[in-house]
Amino acid sequence: MQSQETYAIEMQQIVKQFGSIRANDEVNFGAKAGEIHALLGENGAGKSTMMCMLSGVYRPTSGAILLHGESVRIRSPKDAMRLGVGMVFQNFRLVQTLTAAENIVLGERGAFWRGPGWLKRKAEEIEAIAGKFGLPFPVDRPIWQLSVGEQQRVEIVKTLYRGADFIILDEPTSVLTPGEADQLFETLERMKQEGKTVILTTHKLKEVMFAADRISVMRKGKMIATMPKTETSERDLAQLMVGKESAAVTAVQRERRKTGTPLLVVQGLEVMGDHGRRMLKGIDFDIGEGEIVGVAGVSGNGQKELAEVLTGLRPWKQGAVHFNGELLKNGSVLGAIRAGIAHVPENRMRSGLAGSLSSVDNLLLKTYRSAARSRFGLLRTAKNRSWSQGLVEQFDVKQAGLDLPTQFMSGGNQQKLLLAREIDQDPKLMIAVHPTQGLDVGATEGVHRLLEGLRSKGRAVLLVSEDLDEILALADRVLVMYDGRIVGNLPRSEASREDIGLLMAGSREDAG
């Protein structure tokens, strides 16, 4: 297959299969020398998978990669770097105890056997590259002492030091302050002037329209469109990124119950992230009885921290959370459980279920102290087994037996078992984070029915999801998060894919 246009780097008919999941479906992509090319898409669109193949982390199932028109085989990151392709990942690949200079020369032949004089000369060389591209950082300081922005500069300089002509940045501003992001864009412009090809994978429309020369949009593993920045707009890109409104009848067209009094009231919530930055910035919202509130947003904008705060897994710095008329205890998992808050976490097998334990043991994890489940500190084995069997049947959990470790169950049945445990406690509020991620259509419908069942009983549901179809099908109201803030609070009747997409990308803020 011959390209009709000359590209410095090109991917033709790329397919990447992970088991039964096709992450990339015959994707064509090309970037020119001396341009900044933005690869846009929601989480799960397949853009990072494409770039991981270009940088040698993954190998394509089929398809071809060309550099300056010549077919190449990239079977490892070492191959990619030898060909001039470098990637800066969202999660940095740095050794915390080594200095910035040591990280950059790490892997170079004889790097730590040539004495301090050699390393000093290399440090001077690194400082010269950093200065040329506007990427200052202390080269002799250990990584753990550097800010997140400085660590990213180390990663970028590492690719430049190793001679990269094609530089891929994966969601580069997700960990940066606005000032650091502005500095990064100045650096990208310098790279462009040096003839480098910069590929920017992102979901932020404002940044794309500011920095990119051309834009490619992916959705659900396919390449949807490629165009010059001058021929599109933020609104057009948002529509391409999230898709058009479906004409199919969805759950939102059913009659909605009038929601009751506010059950959860969050006021001025400020929360710090694992890296010491503010992840929630004074947010306010409420959830009523008998209401499903969807939280939309691209990951990394505070949704994870919000769910952790409300379930007691993370303390808040400022603000207040009132639940069922009382002040919720800060940073107490047991307090959240006793208040009547249930939790379906993002990763069911890491923080929801114990894979080596049986269904019975997993169902007991939150109630084993109760009189119904134990007596005098001893579990009521026969009664607990009978109770577990009843839940398995009620929630249609298919398994070989109650004693089978849950790690051997399918993902859908694991999720139904987790929901069975949480719903059996008759919670007042269910916090469900990506509850159908990785599930097939049948299992997804089953989970949706369970959440709708809670609403019909007058319970509240906070649904955190990156799947707009799921949110639009289930939610009575949609909160949109961006950069740690709630930038949209939309009744379902007023929420469109296009508007939500713009809010998710930080292109505008809704006063409601």
UniProtKB/TrEMBL annotation:
Q: Which residues form the ABC transporter domain?
A: 9-245, 264-508
Per UniProt, what is one GO molecular function of this protein? ATP binding
The residue range of the signal peptide is none
Keywords, alphabetical:
ATP-binding, Nucleotide-binding
Specify the domain of life of the species encoding this protein. Bacteria
Fetch the PROSITE patterns from UniProt: ABC_TRANSPORTER_1, ABC_TRANSPORTER_2
Q: Which Pfam families match?
A: ABC_tran
**Gene3D superfamilies from the UniProt entry:** P-loop containing nucleotide triphosphate hydrolases
Would I find Nucleotide-binding among this entry's keywords?
Answer: yes
Q: What is this protein's record name?
A: ABC transporter ATP-binding protein
From which source organism is this entry?
Paenibacillus whitsoniae
